[in-house]
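Table S2 (continued). Query chain:
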Amino acid sequence: MYDISWANQQTLQSVTWDDVRQRVSSPVRTAVEKVLSSLNGGVLTREECLTLAGCSGDDLFGLVVAANELRRRLVGDVVSYVVTRNINFTNVCFVGCKFCAFSVGPRDESAYFLSLDEVAQKCREAEQWGATEVCIQGGLPRNLPPFYYRDILRAVKSATPKMHAHAFSPMEMVYGVELTGMPLREYLLMLKENGLDTLPGTAAEILDDSVRHILSANKLSTAQWCEVIETAHQCGIRSTSTMMYGHAETHEHWVNQMLLLRKIQSRTGGFTEFVPLGFIHDNTLLFAQGLARAGATLAEHLKVHALARVMLAGSIDHIQVSWVKLGREVSQLSLLAGADDYGGTLFEENISRLAGATAGQCISTAEFQERILQLGRLPAQRNTLYSKYEYPIANTTGDSSGAVAVGGTRLQSGAPRSGL
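Corresponding output:
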């Protein structure tokens, strides 16, 4: 077992790459310094990526410190968040993902299905709370009305015309195509015309069909996920990108997935951010059947976020922590390991909670700001596309150098980039 006593806020806030580089092995040092000098993870070979993904001990410490330095050079000291509400319109689902504890059968006593009026009311409430985005996903019930996803978007935009609709996973898009019989491109354009703004890049898990078969035999394939995402991007519908780790996958799967995401981004430029999603094992069939480990270790959490920052540098420059899966302490440490975004307020998170997550269903903007200031960083409320930032702390000032003072502390903030 390697010592990771360095994995604490005090150490990671104070140490620099120059402090640790001599402790790091030559292969790891060479790889990360290539990226630090070029600000481009594309300079790495696959073998170098695998070396970073497999590192431990002082090499992992060095990777984390280098990722934090790279984050500072790419996007500055801003930590952003978005005010959003989750709307899971039904928990009824026939897919049967073994890592999910949210879905139920139609006859289960806990089964529910929100009406369009109820979805609209949740959007109005979100708008009153100051939300700029609603994130809408649900289970896949049998016999869903063919144009139900379109009808949800109409309900959202009718109730709250200015609300950003971040809605429907690639799995839901495949289901919508099956229900309507429309070609994928025409289906996506129809949803866009009715108010779809961006897609969550969920349902990715691990983009390797041998692993996907273990997680869910009925889930869309890797090729289908890529087709939906690339077609959406070509239609002007941007998306997030995700990876679920800490279950049945290996370090090699991490590398393959990040390389695949870089490849897609080079063709489309459509990803806004990358969101590592730590597997919550507690209440899942996947863990109960002995098909997965009990989630990621602290070292793995930090390694995935650091690896993403290094490998995706210059391609997908925003790395988000999933606070609902990581909890406060690991989220804070991950923001010192390369991440720069805290995700959303959520208001009503259900999926991770039912799998066993204990971080809560909502974080207020005030708590986001308090957490970010504790890291010595600059809080910023953003829109979904990372194209608009508001800096809510009253005692912040900027100067022509790009430095920002927060409560008397001078931060070199830089201009947040778009993630392209």
